[in-house]
Amino acid sequence: MGNITDLIKDVANKNQIIETFAAKVIEINKETESLHNPEDAYTVNIMRADGAILKNVRLKASILDVEQGIITIPKKDSWVLATIIGGVETRAFISQFSEVERTFIRFKNDENHYLEIDIDVDKFQVLFKEKEGNDSSTTSVPTYKNIAQLEFNGKEGSNISTTFYDENGTEISKNSFNIKEQNISINEGNTIFNLKDKEVKVTIKNGFEAIISDVKTSFKKGDLIFEMDDKFKIDAGTKNLLTELESLITEVSKIVVVQGVGPNVGSLLTIKSNLQNLLKI
Prior knowledge:
With 281 residues, the protein is mostly beta strands. The chain has helices at 4-14, 241-253, 265-278, and strands at 18-30, 41-48, 53-58, 69-74, 79-85, 93-97, 100-108, 113-120, 123-131, 144-153, 159-165, 171-178, 183-186, 191-196, 199-204, 208-213, 217-221, 224-228, 232-236, 239-240. 14% of the residues lie in helices and 48% in strands.
């Protein structure tokens, strides 16, 4: 099966006939063992209006070249225009689409660096990667390592994510922004920013939480809570700083001194009142 480029040259040189007809897509032939993405597809099976079935109709010029190219994958059961060159069915290719399921583009340069763009109705993904090893003569199956990825996913609450990889292709950082929930996640949830109108909530893995708003500011680490609005609130587990200080003052005011000067109860009550102006339960 030659390339479309060569076939077009034959058409020009030999004045071959080009036939185009409408057909229905009955099967998307996915490349489940693809080196890049098991959702890739380079051919489809179609059925003509007269019931004749054509298999492995091309979606790209060279279906053997998986290194680069632009692929438009039609929806199953949609109608397309298929074109045959010189009456040879193995030269059939899809020339026009009525409904598109997915489009992906794969660029490659001489340094074996790749840029992949993958688009469907719910996703837009850009992936940078490179082939491991630059020896093009090797017969072993090539492997690829990711460098960086940017993705928009409409199914997951309109989520935008970025992923970065080390020199071995191992993921080192994944950050995301959920547009619907206004939620920013840094390094796979180790740090999360939740943005709301007049409020920002910051959560750090292993127990720290901070909320800053036009109403109050609060910090939490484990059982320790610090809160501030018109007063301060400090809790440690079931203990509250205001109630503990009030209990202390109450106990001090009960002290009875046999000789000398005892506690000034009036001053203690004043301190208690001042604490109530500063702290709350």
